[in-house]
Write a structure and sequence with these properties.
There is one protein chain. It is built from seven helices and 14 strands.
C-alpha cells in the first residue's frame, strides 16, 4: 500500500488522482501512525521550505520519514518534497531532513556563477512549464524505465537541488544550467517536476516507484 504524507503542503489530491488512474491503492494521512503499515511512502509538496519543515516537525512526520528511510522503506519526494530531503534550503534559511547531503539554492546565484544572463535568454524565474530530461543510463533502466526519451515533464520551482554527490542525480533538465530533476539514492527517489501533472510519462514514473525495492532496484515489492 502506498502512503501519501499530508503535511499541509499542497498538491495531495492530484497525487491521489494520479495513483488512482494507475490502479494503485493508496491512503492519505496527516498522522504518522496512520501510515505505519504502508510499504512505500510519497511526500509531495509545493510552496515554502521553512513552512513545510515546520509542518513536518509539528506532525512528527520529520522523524517518521527519517526512520522509514533508515529502515529501507521506498520513499518518493515530489517538487518541494524533492528539496526537503537535503540538509539545508536557502528558502527561509532552514535545516531540512538531511536524508542526502546537499543544499537547495535559488536560480539567480546559480545563473550568475555560470555567467548566464537569464533575462536576456528569456529564462524566467520560476522555471515554470514543460521541459524534457537528460536521463542517466542506469536510471533509464529503473525509475525512468519505459519512459520515452522525448517525454516532457511539468516544472514549477525557483530553487534548485544541489547534491554533494553528483551520483545522486539520475536526470537533469536544461534551463540554461543543468537542473537536477530526478534524484536516486538507495531506497529514495525524488522528482523536482510533478509526475502527477505530467501525463502518461509521469504516470509511468509513479508505476515504476510502485515496483521499487529497498535498494532502489526492482522486484520483490508489492503495490
Amino acid at each position: 500500500m502506498i502512503g501519501i504524507i499530508d503535511y499541509n503542503a499542497g498538491n495531495i489530491k492530484s497525487v491521489e488522482r494520479a495513483l488512482a488512474a494507475c490502479g494503485i491503492p493508496c491512503i492519505r494521512a496527516k498522522k504518522p501512525a496512520e501510515l505505519a503499515d504502508c510499504d512505500r511512502l510519497i511526500f509531495p509538496g509545493v510552496g515554502d521550505a521553512a513552512f513545510a519543515m515546520a509542518q513536518l516537525k509539528e506532525t512528527g512526520f520529520d522523524s517518521f520519514i527519517k526512520d522509514r528511510f533508515a529502515s529501507g522503506t521506498p520513499l518518493m519526494g515530489i517538487c518541494l518534497g524533492s528539496q526537503i530531503i537535503f540538509d539545508f534550503s536557502e528558502e527561509g534559511d532552514v535545516p531540512c531532513l538531511g536524508l542526502i547531503p546537499g543544499r537547495i539554492r535559488h536560480f539567480e546565484p546559480l545563473f550568475h556563477e555560470a555567467g548566464i544572463d537569464h533575462a536576456a535568454l528569456g529564462l524566467k524565474i520560476p522555471h515554470m512549464g514543460w521541459n524534457n530530461l537528460d536521463v542517466r543510463e542506469d536510471a533509464a533502466a529503473t525509475i525512468m524505465k519505459d519512459v520515452s526519451s522525448s517525454a516532457d515533464f511539468y516544472f514549477v520551482h525557483s530553487y534548485v537541488i544541489q547534491p554533494e554527490n553528483k551520483e545522486d542525480i539520475a536526470a537533469t533538465a536544461d534551463y540554461g544550467i543543468a537542473v537536477p530533476s530526478v534524484i536516486r539514492h538507495g531506497n529514495l527517489v525524488a522528482t523536482q517536476f510533478h509526475p502527477e501533472k505530467s501525463g502518461v510519462a509521469g504516470l509511468q514514473i509513479l508505476k515504476n516507484f510502485c515496483g521499487m525495492n529497498s535498494t532502489g532496484g526492482f522486484g520483490g515489492a508489492s503495490c
